[in-house]
Amino acid sequence: MRAGGRTRTLLELFAVSAKLGLTSFGGPIAHLGYFHDEYIVRRKWMDERNYADLVALCQFLPGPASSQVGIGVGIVRAGWLGGLIAWAGFTLPSVVIMTIFALLLQGADIASAGWIHGLKIVAVAVVAHALLGMGQKLAQGRTLATVAVLAATAVLLWPTAYGQVLVIAAAGLAGLWLYRKEQPVAAEPVPIAISRKLAVGCLTLFAILLAGLPLLREIWDAKWLAMLDSFYRAGALVFGGGHVVLPLLEREFVPAWLGGDEFMAGYGAAQAIPGPMFTFASYLGARADGVFGAAIATAGIFLPGFLLVAGALPFWYSLRRSPRIQGILTGVNAAVVGILLAALYDPLWTTAIAAPADCALALILFAMLAYWKLPSWAVVLTGAAGGVLLGWI
After folding, report:
1. Which PANTHER family has this protein been placed in (predicted)?
2. pTM value?
């Protein structure tokens, strides 16, 4: 790719990911729906199967799954720099917002605002739309539909992060057994502009930092280093996304660096804004050490996920050509549909739909996405306005 073409690609990638960072409300499952609509349906940067395989990979890895999917799309589009650009565009809007909350608006009660309620209903519509599209492609037929339903049932009855990981693993084993005699379905080739040598380097750096930062922290008593270690370990060891990272960060920061009320105020703000919930770390870092602390915290908590995706992708897209790997992926993809179905009910439906009027707004927003094909920003604005209107009724 020529320099001018590469620059245009990177600028387009940043613009699109920044738009998603400004409009993607509802948590990691909803983010996958936004990504699917923008990257796959509208721009066709990947095909459905490749996107589903990328989602499956990121479900297996620790860290912020939705952010890792965005990084993976960026890597496929424009190499490691594309992954960095995609991450920056999606993450920086909420980093800036959370830093401002920490410096100026800590303790502000925004969770009860009408427009926040409307955005929760937007998330219901987005996930329902994503569920419809992914279910038709990844859970076709009685067997895969059964896997999806069993996965949803297990996640609803056993709502833990590790339970979700076990469900995905069990679905992979089921796919391996059920489709052991099937010929692999050829997916459209996806070039990964990262060498295996660089990938091994990323995985090695991930392990060195995970083992070395705690030791370095003991030797060198520096506040920024202690913060980097705490956030890096949280990003490297948590499965299940932003909600699961809460107890890890609470043990590290309360009461050592801030009070419990301040901690929960920031967590409430993180749920009310677009973008990845891991930017809660930006709030904590800013409360601990201003803008510099926010930068350290943001880099620390997202770096493990970036290194893992960059390290795994070159091997992942080679391994999946194996019939056994494709059988595993078939089962995992059906389980992801089931997990999406469970998330549509809890936490999205249970927290957003409290009255018939809420359900009516969700139906209107779903129709805007599925049948009127309106852009996501229009749906978000309509949902926010609708939430305010519902508060007046």
Report:
1. CHROMATE ION TRANSPORTER (EUROFUNG)
2. 0.73
Write the pLDDT tens digit of every residue in 35-59.
Answer: 998 999 999 998 888 888 888 888 7
Phi and psi at 195, nearest 5°, equal: -70, 160
Tokens (6 digits) for 68: 């890792």
* Residue in the block written with tokens 């539909």: 145
Instruction: Look up residue 298 and give its amino acid.
Output: T
Burial label for 216, CB within 10 Å (0-12, 13-18, 19+), is: middle
Boundaries of domain holding 259: 9-393
Q: How many CA atoms lie within 13 A of 245 on its CB side?
A: 30
Identity of the amino acid at 335:
A
> Among all chains, which residue has been given the structure tokens 């589903």?
52
| Sign (positive or negative) of CA dihedral 42, 48, 53, 56 | positive
Round to whole Å and give the CA distance between 235 and 163.
19
In a domain, 1, yes or no: no
What is the total count of domains within the chain? 1
Q: Which helix (H) or strand (E) holds 63?
A: none
